[in-house]
Design a protein that fits this description.
The complex is a heterodimer. By secondary structure, chain A is an all-alpha fold. Helix content of chain A is 72%, strand content 0%. The chains are: A mainly alpha, B alpha+beta.
Chain lengths: 183, 259
């Protein structure tokens, strides 16, 4: 696609904006998610001249979204601070997720989900990111690799470790949970 | 154990699916189209009116204002160049281990050729030290110099007697925190093999960063035309007296990473 074809690009924007906004929000863009996405679409457009025909647009776009989201936290200083400031914006979003189940199950589910979100909060940033991309956003392994800029082997190994740590974090205060967990 | 993991995955997927669908405002596509219509050249965004910059400075911390700030940054830097103003409008962004600061006026129109790598470390040995396989652009042939930095984070290759003149290629693990910082008046967003990449064609300051983000003063220098892209999990930084087309050609001659 070349420069003049703006209608086609508008179509791409409509098609990919929802997943792009979700990605930005879950990676820590908070209320700026839509601004991040706007920026990413403009950058992607400006680079389209060199975009290889037939390559998938979505992972490429989401990679820019991920970079832009990271940039939002640049002013937070050191890496650890940046990562914390990103999670601070994502955590409330996840805790507020409505459980559209029947009311009786809602309390238990809500409790369980809070634990799950707290568990995510205990993971290192790369581990949390890989879980976010792969499961919360349901990107496939290749897309996750592209978005995070890691080799696929790294996606696999980090995902494995992240799930292990998450399971361990959830298992820790066993008496606090209402959900049975078999071993 | 497998079922535990499956159950956990199902819970995570369920959580993701119950997230409210984002309300993407109708204005998003319009805003994008307006911006690409008014900014056909990616490197330097046109000024949208100097009057706006007061507004921009007032809310420079807000993301959507910061864009306006970037637009007027060039105007401010050339007209005022007052350090506090400059700090307020500086726009920072990063890509795969490279930190870029917009700014830095071009005081010269040319940069010296990139430093030559004198060491001739065997590639296998270099690979073992940095922990990744060196990516070699076939367009450049065998490098004359191969070196790994003392902290084993950076692999540097150089070619000196080819038709392209002195060319240097730095490679490092992109998962590391920032490795290079650049201060530049402009950047062109391009793509290498379908992936996001950046092209710098103004002479600009470049400095190697320590793992804690501090600058290694002794490494600061003026760099010329540079292309930065990712190859698998490795960040590639190609520098030399190259046209954008030639740089992209060299970048795309690197065999695809093993997936």
């Amino acid at each position: 696609m070349r420069g003049g074809d703006r209608d086609a690009y508008a179509d791409l924007v409509h098609r990919h904006a929802p997943v792009a906004v979700r990605t930005a929000a879950l990676l820590g863009a908070g209320a700026d998610a839509e601004d991040v996405v706007q920026e990413a679409f403009v950058k992607a457009y400006n680079a389209l001249g060199r975009f290889r025909q037939g390559a998938a647009f979505r992972p490429w776009l989401l990679q820019i979204v991920a970079n832009e989201t990271r940039n939002l936290h640049r002013s937070a200083g050191r890496r650890a601070d940046r990562e914390r400031s990103a999670w601070r914006l994502t955590e409330p979003l996840l805790l507020a997720v409505p459980a559209a189940e029947d009311p009786a199950a809602t309390v238990v589910l809500r409790e369980r989900r809070s634990e799950l979100v707290r568990g995510l909060g205990k993971l290192s940033e790369p581990h949390r990111q890989v879980v976010t991309c792969r499961y919360l956003l349901e990107l496939d392994e290749a897309e996750t690799a592209a978005v995070l800029g890691w080799p696929r082997g790294t996606v696999k190994s980090r995902l494995h470790r992240a799930l292990g740590q998450l399971a361990a974090a959830l298992a820790a205060p066993a008496e606090m949970t209402e959900v049975r967990r078999g071993h | 154990m497998a079922t535990d993991t499956d159950a956990l995955v199902a819970e995570l997927v369920g959580l993701g699916r119950d997230l409210p669908r984002p309300e993407v405002s109708a204005g998003l596509a319009t805003a994008v189209l307006e911006r690409i219509a008014e900014a056909p050249a990616p490197a330097t965004a046109p000024s949208s009116g100097v009057g706006e910059w007061f507004h921009a400075l007032g809310e420079a911390t807000r993301r959507h204002r910061r864009r306006t700030a970037v637009v007027v940054a060039a105007v401010l830097l050339s007209l005022l160049a007052a350090p506090p103003v400059r700090a307020a409008v500086a726009d920072w962004f990063g890509f795969a281990g490279v930190l870029v600061e917009r700014g830095g006026e071009s005081t010269t129109t040319s940069a010296p050729p990139p430093p030559t790598v004198d060491a001739k470390t065997p590639l296998e040995e270099a690979a073992a030290q940095v922990g990744f396989t060196p990516a070699l652009p076939s367009a450049l042939g065998t490098p004359q110099g191969v070196e790994v930095s003392p902290d084993r984070r950076l692999l540097s290759l150089s070619w000196s007697d080819g038709p392209d003149g002195p060319v240097r290629l730095d490679e490092f693990d992109a998962r590391l925190d920032y490795t290079f910082a650049k201060r530049t008046p402009g950047v062109v967003f391009v793509a290498v093999a379908g992936d996001f990449a950046m092209w710098f064609d103004d002479p600009h300051e470049v400095v190697v960063l320590n793992p804690d983000g501090s600058r290694r003063r002794e490494t600061a220098r003026l760099a010329g035309n540079t292309l930065i892209w990712m190859h698998g999990g490795t960040t590639m930084r190609l520098e030399g007296d190259l046209s954008q087309e030639r740089a992209l050609e060299i970048a795309e001659s690197v065999p695809a990473p093993p997936f």
